[in-house]
Design a protein that fits this description.
The structure is a homodimer of 174-residue chains. Chain A is mostly helical and 174 residues long. Chain A has one domain (2-173): Tetracycline Repressor, domain 2. Chain A has helices at 2-20, 27-34, 38-44, 48-68, 74-82, 84-87, 93-101, 106-129, 135-156, 159-173. The relative contact order of chain A is 0.11. At the A-B interface, α7, α8, α9 and α10 of A face α7, α8, α9 and α10 of B. The structure holds a DNA duplex (30 and 30 nucleotides).
DNA sequence: TCCTTTCTTGACCTTTTAGTCAAGTGAAAA
DNA sequence: TTTTCACTTGACTAAAAGGTCAAGAAAGGA
């Protein structure tokens, strides 16, 4: 049972921070959700901050790799990107955590910066595999448009427009 | 002096919320910054939430209109967008506040959604004045790329790449 | 000048928050 | 069986948070 509590904590913390923000979330919610007591959590994580950093490393980053490492073509990439409104109910977890924390805490800043770098590399590799020119810049273009469009989607809740913006980019670039 | 305190409160609250987030900011910081006491603030704003909503209406929205309403051409628009890293030290205020609050509070959600709509309309009008086709979609494309690129910039702190992404869009579209 | 309304003060209240700790449980190693 | 160590409990603490209020100061109109 040793690992289960830690994993359950990370799962619940990820969901709670994702929805409410790191600062806005309170530990009691997570504890109640998992069904354990405080001391148990503080056995695994020395502080709320440590839990937050672990969520970035062991959930946000892991989810990104799971999602993008297996993508085989640019076409497939855009299909996955276009499905974001269905899978990401509160925006991009990495983007959201970054906007909140990078100006406040340098440990968060460093880790989020590194994680973003990995995301960018994953996208870049998909482009290179398909023989796309200037893949670094295009990876940034794709991610930027994706992140921005997802934010706009969550303010409007209009699926079609989100897809149109991304498909527009796909056609402009390729 | 009647209006001064209210205006000073809005200024300080805007800066504080902008840097630390709405939930992460505490009222004592703002009060200390302005140099007044609690009761004085609660005379003008019935709650922290009311202050936050007023900041959106009277600062975030006002700043957007000030910045974009006077832009005369698409060229000028992209120049202004490219200067964002110099003027927006903690990202796009509207984007940041939205990511944090739209899933938490419906009053924030409504107001931020409306404010975004005005921003989009301002950009759309610039495009139309220059005779750009399908201005609505292109306004969304520009804003999406801008917002996403600005987020990436703040994780990397590399000016050139931010500008390259935006200039790339400018060339792809026009 | 006097009166009314608009601010301002600063102490106070209540709730919530992250974090601590000594005592206990239980499973696995010895 | 006994010992050990990883984990769990739940009450406790201290600080910080948002918010209240009665009383006083200023400002403006009559």
């Amino acid at each position: 049972m040793k690992k289960d509590t830690r994993e359950a904590l990370l799962d619940s913390a990820f969901n709670t921070f994702y929805k409410q923000g790191f600062q806005g979330a309170n530990i009691a919610t997570i504890l109640n959700d998992v069904g354990i007591n405080k001391g148990s959590m503080y056995h695994f994580f020395k502080s709320k901050k440590a839990l937050g950093l672990a969520v970035i490393e062991e959930r946000i980053e892991r989810n990104l790799v799971n999602k993008y490492a297996s993508i085989k073509s640019v076409e497939e990439l855009f299909d996955v990107l276009c499905s974001a409104p269905k899978t990401l109910a509160y925006g991009c977890p990495l983007n959201k955590m970054s906007q909140e924390m990078i100006y406040i805490d340098t440990d968060f800043q460093k880790l989020l910066s590194t994680t973003y770098g990995k995301f960018e590399t994953l996208v870049q590799m998909i482009l290179e595999r398909d023989g796309v020119e200037s893949s670094e810049l295009k990876a940034k273009q794709i991610i930027a448009t994706y992140e921005g469009a997802l934010m706009i989607y969550h303010l409007n809740r209009q699926d079609e427009e989100f897809v149109l913006v991304l498909r527009g980019l796909e056609q402009d670039i390729f």
